[in-house]
Amino acid sequence: MSVKKYTFSDLVRIEQLRRIESVKAEELSYTSIKNIPDSPRSDFSYPEFIYRLKTRANYLIYENVLGDKLRQPNQQFIRARRICLIIAVILGGLAASHAVSESSTLNIYWLLAVLLGFNLISLLLWISGIALNLQSLSSGIIAQLASWLPYRHKYDPTSASLASQAWWENCLTGNIGKWRISVLTHQFWLTYLSAGLVLLILLMLAKQYNFIWGTTLLPDNTLPKLTQVLGAPLEALGLKIPDDPQTIASRIGTSKQDAEARMAWATFLIGVLIVYGIFPRLLLLGLSWVMQKWCEYRFKLDLYLPYYIELRQRLMGREVKGEVIDADPQEGRKPADIIRPPDNVSIPANAQAFGIELDTATPWPERVICRLNIIDQESHDAAISLINKMKAPVLLGVAAHRLPDRGVQRMIKELVDNSNTKPWLILLSKSSAPVASAREIAWFRLAEACGIPAEHVITR
């Protein structure tokens, strides 16, 4: 098993360089890669090829001073993430501070609606996007709008803009982009909730608050029941939540609360934010991070692109040692002198004619009828079967303009060996394809090698 010698970042750098070379190849210097040695492997290996692409890319990036341009889009994404998290801190703090009135009262369900409501809507949209594989919902609308930024130099691309396009296409689209943006989304809401929770704890540490609730449209028993439902997991953890008398007593306009009721409501508020807000986001953040790393691990370059096909031939080319798999049995022997027969050799009477891979345009003599034209293994076997049973002379017709190769020689040799008489060979020619003297001599040599004497070769 081959060892993986590259990371996802290496593949992204290779893709960035590919995009730059596809547009700016004439402006780049290739001096440093001229002496890269060939691959020592005899077979293709994807990890080895990627390792060589990585080595080549490092040389070119260093030689053409492209390092800063290739790192720029990742640095921009990191800065954007930091800005998003700062905004989340501010929004979380504002949401918590505005839910606290100046009269030292804290509307418990209004605060939960502000902190957990938007978080819940975002969570439902994200789950819908993941379940339905909708990039716009799982990645976020802002991320989709921001993906336009790398293409602002479309009509006059620079090396930096080309590198940005390649980075965004590989890191912020597809499965990798879906999970990367998911990580950022969960980090944003986790920061938002944490900031709101920390501010609330600080406010409750420094000041005494009475917890209240109220409703105009809902029935009177709705929010008390909701309190018991939300507080069930907290009670399972051993935390004390407001009981029914304390919940009813906390309605707006009733008497002031005692310390026990305030502690129960504070525990309830902190516990609900952690159990229903922060904890799910932590789980989904971990899941998204694992899925992002898994998709990055499985990411592969498209080696069928012309760029990689050319580099594969250049970087992974190997020496191919040719060998003859069908050696010429006559190799090394001096050809015997051919004595041409007289030109008036006639076709024997009652000769049974067989063609050797003849086309329809090759004519036979008028009084000769071809019984079978051998064009494949089936017709070859049928011809041998017929010749075995014949007592009449066998006439083998070949196209004189064709080169007498060893395949034809083997075929004729098998037919001769299965014949009960000494076969004849006739050289058929077309008027449109005159036969040179050297080609005729080659046929005479083939006939001699197959056991057909020169006087049994008929030329026309």
Automatic annotation (TrEMBL):
InterPro entries, alphabetized: DUF2868
Membrane-crossing segments per the record: 83-101, 107-127, 188-206, 263-290
Keywords: Membrane, Transmembrane, Transmembrane helix
This protein's name: DUF2868 domain-containing protein
